[in-house]
Specification:
Elements (H helix, E strand, L loop, with lengths): L6 H8 L9 E6 L2 E7 H4 L4 H20 L4 E6 L5
Parallel strand pairs: 2-3
Antiparallel strand pairs: 1-2
Amino acid sequence: MESLYSDEIRNYIRTRSWPAGLLYEIVEYEGYLGFRLFRNNFNSFDGEDRLQIAMTVKEIMEKIRADGIPIYMEVVRENGR
């Protein structure tokens, strides 16, 4: 089965503008991708950075969905759990 997380998507995500120190993961499940943010890491940013993160994630998810790939947001308590 071909991976949904292609090099094109990977490069697109990596070239977005992210606040320094943001942790995120792209998780591939059977038939869809998950964009995972870590609550403890996200909460360490101020309001302006949080807005930037939210707008960037929205942009990424819209682009990936426009390419016909299902993607969902995941928020977990902390990195590694």
